């Protein structure tokens, strides 16, 4: 049997933490759907039978002892060699049958990432209200800051090109990794697309590792961190402008009073206004310097991206 899919090596990578209930079925489903693919289960500090059941189903097991999905993705992108990467969770919620369509879209349109945009299917409470609202809020926030193009930023079902994988730094540690994956594509201006995919309830006995508020806060923090890192000019200029306005509000009445009387009765306020204005000037200078740094880093990232050949149709 041909070990490639349309001439490309395909790896299915499944980050897992305590997914013994579903992992064997997920591995077999991907093996049936993409028989040419090599399947890897990255066991992230599981305390149950995830690794043994995945191995019995035919997957290669790689253990990642440091907890956190971001740590797993970093290991995946470093260790797995393939032309196309299919990443999904091992909890049985994603539609494995759509994977060939996602891969075909990546190849035919010469994309770097295809995201499975989740649409709830089947019975049961698949999406909690907090998850739905949080996803929309965070996806909309990223769209406003970094650009539109995604409707489900937090989906864990994605297909990547090798070019994308080997240019991705993977700095996040936990579930905020999906946010970083999305923003990396937007900042790199890499070609990407979405495909609607069914999203089902977890099998009975399987427990979600997500915490609506805790993980939502971590994702929001990650967006803020990426905003500061990728848009330092805008952030620092906004702070400089705010500080300058505050300085003028405090200082102008004192200036007018001095022009009228020749006295400065509120010297501490005048001193404070001057210090704030000096800080605003420093923030403006910092904005210019950091913008130059980010430009250089973006150029280096782009050159790394271009050094790896993209996916092309071979049939």
In short:
This protein has 315 residues and is of the alpha/beta class.
Describe, in plain words, how this protein is organized in 3D.
The protein has 315 residues and is of the alpha/beta class. It has two domains: 10-230, Spore Coat Polysaccharide Biosynthesis Protein SpsA, Chain A, CATH 3.90.550.10; 232-305. It has helices spanning 23-33, 50-56, 69-79, 99-108, 129-146, 162-165, 177-188, 212-230, 232-261, 267-306; strands spanning 10-16, 38-43, 60-63, 84-87, 113-120, 158-161, 192-199. The chain has a seven-stranded mixed β-sheet with strand order 3-2-1-4-6-5-7, with helices on both faces. Helix 1 (23-33) links the parallel strand 1 (10-16) and strand 2 (38-43). Helix 5 runs parallel beside helix 8 (212-230), helix 7 runs parallel beside helix 8 (212-230) and helix 9 (232-261) runs antiparallel to helix 10 (267-306). The longest helix has 40 residues, at 267-306. The radius of gyration is 25 Å and the shape is elongated. The mean pLDDT is 88.
Question: Tags for this entry?
Answer:
315 residues; alpha/beta; 2 domains; 7 strands; 51% helix; elongated
Question: What is the class of the largest domain in the CATH system?
Answer: Alpha Beta
Helix content: 40-55%
- Low confidence ranges: none
Radius of gyration: 25 Å
């Amino acid at each position: 049997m041909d070990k490639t899919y349309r001439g490309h090596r395909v790896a299915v990578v499944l980050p897992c933490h305590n997914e013994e209930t579903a992992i064997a079925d997920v591995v077999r489903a991907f093996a049936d759907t993409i028989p040419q693919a090599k399947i890897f289960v990255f066991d992230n500090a599981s305390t149950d039978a995830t690794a043994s059941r995945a191995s019995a189903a035919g997957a290669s097991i790689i253990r990642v002892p440091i907890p956190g999905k971001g740590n797993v993705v970093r290991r995946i992108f470093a260790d797995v060699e393939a032309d196309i990467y299919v990443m999904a969770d091992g909890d049985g919620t994603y539609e494995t049958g759509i994977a060939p369509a996602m891969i075909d879209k990546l190849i035919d349109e010469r994309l770097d990432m295809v995201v499975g945009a989740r649409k709830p299917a089947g019975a049961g409470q698949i999406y909690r209200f907090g998850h739905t609202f949080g996803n929309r809020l965070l996806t909309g926030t990223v769209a406003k800051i970094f650009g539109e193009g995604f409707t489900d930023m937090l989906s864990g079902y994605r297909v990547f090109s090798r070019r994308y994988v080997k240019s991705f730094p993977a700095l996040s540690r936990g579930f905020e990794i999906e946010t970083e994956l999305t923003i990396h594509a937007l900042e790199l201006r890499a070609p990407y697309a979405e495909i609607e995919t069914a999203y089902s309830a977890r099998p009975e006995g399987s427990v979600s590792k997500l915490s609506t508020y805790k993980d939502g806060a971590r994702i929001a923090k990650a967006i803020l961190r990426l905003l500061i890192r990728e848009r330092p000019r805008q952030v620092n200029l906004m702070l400089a402008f705010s500080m300058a306005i505050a300085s003028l509000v405090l200082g102008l009445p004192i200036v007018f009073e001095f022009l009228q009387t020749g006295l400065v009765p509120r010297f501490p306020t005048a001193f404070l206004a001057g210090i704030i204005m000096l800080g605003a000037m420093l923030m403006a200078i910092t904005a210019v310097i950091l913008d130059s740094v980010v430009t250089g880093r973006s150029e280096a990232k782009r050159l790394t991206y271009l050094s790896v050949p993209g996916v092309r149709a071979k049939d």
